[in-house]
Design a protein that fits this description.
192 residues; mainly alpha; Arc Repressor Mutant, subunit A; 2 domains; 69% helix; 0% strand; HTH tetR-type domain-containing protein; Homeodomain-like_sf
Length: 192
């Protein structure tokens, strides 16, 4: 009997499902293979080691989030929507969120780079485009800190915030970190 052939995409999807349910806790070739009902051979046929699979998986998830999660319009304000969707993603996928954004020490530079690039793309052709590079980075970092804090605490069920409270916190973070010259324009854009 000929062994079943697995495509790289199938292995990434299987690893995705494993991490969605278990996080990166015990992320081994054996555990991923067992969860897919196969041997470890197909994993090592496509990936040189588990770190390679993990890095590929993180990149795949982040790119997917940039296309399918962050851009979902909820308020009409793209910057607010991106961070609101990030917090909501954590609530819906707590183990996956923790695995990618909290526990995965090797992904930190990658996550930050993707986040900042998405932030810059989102702020093009908006009132935020007039920010200097330093002001962009300051606003991005403040929003990332604030939203990751809310997302982590909510995913762990330590705090509970309503949709409106999350929006208010993100808006306050934006207002607190835009330059004074833009304060009133931004406040108006945020309908505050």
């Amino acid at each position: 009997m000929r062994p079943k052939m697995y495509k790289k995409e199938q292995l990434i999807q299987g690893a995705y499902e494993y991490v969605r349910k278990n996080g990166f806790n015990k992320f081994t070739a054996r555990n991923v293979a067992d969860s897919m009902g196969m041997s470890t051979q197909p994993i090592y046929a496509h990936f040189s080691n588990m770190q390679n699979l993990k890095d590929t998986l993180i990149e795949t998830i982040v790119v997917e989030m940039q296309h399918d999660v962050f851009p979902v319009a909820k308020t009409g304000e793209k910057l607010l929507d991106g961070f609101l969707n990030y917090v909501e993603f954590a609530q819906k996928n707590p183990k996956l969120f923790a695995a990618i954004f909290v526990e995965s020490e090797t992904s930190e530079p990658v996550i930050y780079q993707y986040s900042y690039r998405y932030f810059k793309d989102t702020t093009k052709d908006t009132i935020y485009e007039q920010l200097s590079e330093e002001e962009h980075r300051c606003l991005h970092d403040a929003l990332l800190i604030s939203s990751t804090g809310m997302a982590t605490l909510m995913a762990a069920k330590i705090i509970s915030l309503s949709h409106e409270q999350v929006i208010a916190e993100i808006n306050e973070t934006i207002l607190h970190h835009v330059p004074e010259r833009m304060y009133h324009e931004v406040k108006k854009a945020l309908n505050m």
